[in-house]
Amino acid sequence: MIRYVLSLIITLVALLSIGKVHSQVITTRPGSDTMKVVNLINADRLSYKRPDSLTDLQMLAGNVQLRQGNTLINCDSAVWNKKTRFVEAFGNVHIIDNDTVNIRSQYLQYYVDTKIANLKNNVSLTDSKSTLYTNELQYDLNTKIGEYHNGGKLINQQSVLTSKEGIYYEELKDVYFKKNVYLKDPKYTLKTDSLIYNTASQIATFIAPTTIIDSANRVIQTSDGFYDTRNRKAFFGQRPVLKDGPVTVVATSIATDDSTGISILRGNAVYVDTAQGISVLANRIDANRNDGTFLATQHPLLIIKQDKDSIYITADTLYSGRLSKLPGGYGSKDSSSLLSDTNRLQRDTSFRKRDSALLQGDSIMNLAKDSASLRDTSKIPTAIARVDIDDAAFVPTDSSTMQPDTTVSPKNITKDKAPALTLQKPPPNKNGAKLAPAAGKTAGKPATATTDNKNDSTDRFFQAWHHVRIFSDSMQAISDSLWYSGKDSVFRLYTDPVLWASNSQITGDTIYLYTKNKNPDRLYVFENGFAINLGDKEMYNQIKGNRLHGYFNNGEIDYMRAQGNAESVYYVKDDKGYVKGINNATSDIIDLRFKNKELNKVVFISEVTGTLYPVRQATEENKFLRNFRWLEDKRPKTKFELFEDVKPVIKTDEDSETTKGQQ
User: Fold this and answer.
1) Full set of structural domains in the chain with CATH
2) Which of 14, 63, 322, 341 has the fewest CB atoms below 10 angstroms from its CB?
3) Could you tell me which residues come within 8 angstroms of residue 622 by beta carbon, excluding any fewer than 6 positions away?
């Protein structure tokens, strides 16, 4: 009877060993420091096998579930080696760690003591934000770190990252991608050798040379920084390069916000626009891609590129934008329309005081409305006097005494009496320069409005504030503020402007310098115009008037006209080049013609009076017009000077040794 009972018990145990198993506890050696407890939650079938003394296998099959701490392992079948504390799982492997990470594969090697999981075949790791796909993955359930070395892909919402190698940090939500990293997003693509990506914040951190191309084909090259893919903000360090069509930007660092279009460049920033032929250098540039504006500060320098003679402009602040984006429809207006509203664009005190040019719109086009404006020479009722500097001088005392066809005699010229002179119209300029346009004419008027095109150079304007300095090989200038429009190619210099060309200096309240093909073409000076041409041995030929109009030829001043209370002082020479005297004259209009950078002819039009003084008898008052100032010390000598700080001007009671005629 006892034998029967024992046999029955053994049979029942055998049957149970091949049936469904629930809630068994599998342990390592009791008392071991590395003891780990593995709970067998479920298995449809269970069997044991001990092929040798070192192997003690427990084979599980069908809906297998194992639990170790907060880690749950599901699979189709598994083999548990109790001696080596090693588990192999097969088919539909699913690891759930802390209810936050899900890892799936078709094969698993699991080391119970170290909690290291090696997964193969169609591996996926999913957290709350993203999914990582690879064919082989090693995951440490202690440190929550996973690694792959044979290619992987991370999908985070619409972003897809691929690389040959990668390390996943579950607690930080960081993935460190290495080798052939490629990130594809609807808004951009990214290529690099190494990258850190946070699946929670969706921030990509650059740690190696990286190339980014956005949906607008903007290219960014960097090796340091980050890009916030969710908020579309980025920071690039270590001299990144940004290329946007014809625009290339380089700086020590660049911060961008694609949602607003704003970029901030810091540290030796360079902005190059090949379509418009301009470059900007500064220690800080704030650019807005949406409206095409930029603000350059901290030693900014603007370079307008030309084939032979580029123009360099510096100031405390440089600003540029599109004319078509300005309020009030500026993009559809020419320069005359811009003048009356220029004040609204300025932000410093220098523009609060409207100068004469702004008070009357574009007075260039309305010269005939002023009593001193240029008149049609065929209708001039009074005398026109033309004097060649190398011919005999004239000293008219009263234009009413002039008689037609009276020849000027070089003899018996005295201080008190002037000979009559021949009446004639001023000859046309041999170099083709034309007089200033009369009222209603459209000389110099720009073309019709252009469409809004960021690559259209005519749709761009530049402004500069404080300590403006301009340098080119043929022309230099200074002023307190500047406006330049690509629509009419005019440099507008405001507040104490000075312009130099060769050995000539021009000053006035406001100066407009018109350019053609980026070369000086003509200029207009509004109110208190004063032009000085330095001859031999500090002989200053001078002309002043309410307005000055000048024309250039090959970068040199070729013709100058003063009108409205015009005055002149010039040195008269004989045929051998010796100075005969100093001529002081006034007229309604005075024309100057230049040759080889020196004064060649003087033409007086209407209401001419004057006196010739022998050189030895001439006083300082005879040699200099009132308010004469020779400002050579302020003239930029080289383009390299523009990189230096402006030297402070120390004013004394006598403004300068070269300031004359103040009394």
Assistant:
1) 20-126 (2.60.450.10), 366-443+494-645 (no CATH)
2) 14
3) 569, 582, 584, 613
